[in-house]
Amino acid sequence: MLRIESKQTSFHTSLYNKIPENHILKTVEQAVDFSFINELLKESYSKKMGRPAKEPALMCKLLFLQHLYNQSDERVIEDGNLNLAYMYFLHLNPEEALPDKSLLSIFRCHRLGETTLDDIITEIVRQCVEQKIIECGTISIDATHVAANTFNNTAERLMKKIAKKVIKSHQKLDEDFESQYEIPDYEIIEDHKEAKQVMKTYLDNVIEEMENSAIPMAQETEDIITQAKGIVSDPKFIVQKGARSIIDEDARVGRKSKTDRFYGYKTEFMMTTDENIITAVCTENGAYTDGSNTNILFKNTLASGLKVKEVYGDKAYFRKPILATCAHESKMPGYVSDNDSDNDKYSDMPGCATFSHSTIQAGEGSITTSGYLDVKSSMYRQFVVAERSERNPAAANT
């Protein structure tokens, strides 16, 4: 049951005057009103049944503190009960106690979702735009790699682990059970394809043995077998592009470059170039192709009321579908065409040489895109420069 109560009514709140005015938590608290989160999440709570729940705004602020100070659930609650700045930011009286640490994981898993997080980010950015904390009209788009918090197994090793887990689970029900199949020593097999096939045959035999066992399988064993079949049946699994962990099935192998791989996730985001405030974010597995969610990121960014004038991106975003999205979402409908006539006006940029150029023509102007090679650092830096030209092409009706 959700119940909103008045905050910081104790005379002990005078202690908060000791917190410096330039403290980051005081700055954030004075700039952003988090109370909208209570309204946003109220439908996920019962209106009449259950004990009074901790307010969603309080729980979200605790998660914010966790991220800001890189703390665990237990540590953020422990420090929160001792830190005046934390208590001030959480809108609590100094003598009040914080919720139990277990409520944080419950809140994360059962109250928050991707849609809710997008709504929270959008509203916070809207408040920043309204208060003129964000004044620039330029945003950048990029993706960062996040390594999975699990061991990166080979297909052979993962199948061995799954088989052992299936057997161990069944032994909880039948202590005397021993599999008739011996674990193959795949490491001595030089041919990797053959090693994978040997381990797959072994895993299939173990699963079949469980399913034909005289003693019915426990629910835990059935769940593990269902999970195993889902992992192994993926065609990408055998070629090392599918799941590599039974703990984190969603993580995938991705590339940082042609030679550098990683196992985990990609987080793609849009961010203001002057204030460095993230306006929208999407998280996908490591195999994600940069730029695929550009339309979603643009939509969420514009929903905050931010007026986008320029978009910056690296080489991965220099693709016509993405440029067309920029034109469409910026309310400048038009078509993409190759045009090198304006290359000269970018050629005098210090330390840069133009290597490509396109123009999106529109009724109100054009979005000019140019690519540059940074000679000093030998790194490609491609800028998608969106500018409304003074021209008004008569032929730009699409």
Report the β-strand fraction as a percent range.
15-25%
Radius of gyration equals 27 Å
Mean pLDDT over the residues: 78
- Helix/strand-derived category reads alpha+beta
Number of helices: 13
Terminus-to-terminus distance: 53 Å
Strand tally, please? 9
Shape: globular
Low-confidence stretches: 332-398
Biggest sheet overview: 5 strands, mixed
Helix coverage percent: 25-40%
Report the order of strands and helices: HHHHHHHEHHHHEEEHEHEEEE
In a nutshell, what does this entry contain?
With 398 residues, the chain is α+β, with helices and mostly antiparallel strands.
What do these coordinates show?
The chain is α+β, with helices and mostly antiparallel strands and 398 residues long. Among the domains are: 11-112, no CATH class; 155-238, no CATH class; 333-398, no CATH class. It has 13 helices and 9 strands. The chain has helices at residues 24-31, 36-41, 56-69, 73-80, 84-89, 102-110, 114-130, 155-171, 192-211, 219-232, 235-238, 294-303, 320-329; strands at residues 138-147, 252-255, 261-272, 278-285, 310-313, 334-338, 352-362, 366-374, 379-387. Strands 1, 2, 3, 4 and 5 form a 5-stranded mixed sheet that branches. Strands 6-7-8-9 form a 4-stranded antiparallel sheet, with helices on one face. Strand 2 (252-255) and strand 3 form a beta hairpin. The longest helix is centred in the middle third of the chain and has 20 residues, at 192-211. The radius of gyration is 27 Å and the shape is globular. The two termini are 53 Å apart. Residues 332-398 have low confidence and may be disordered.
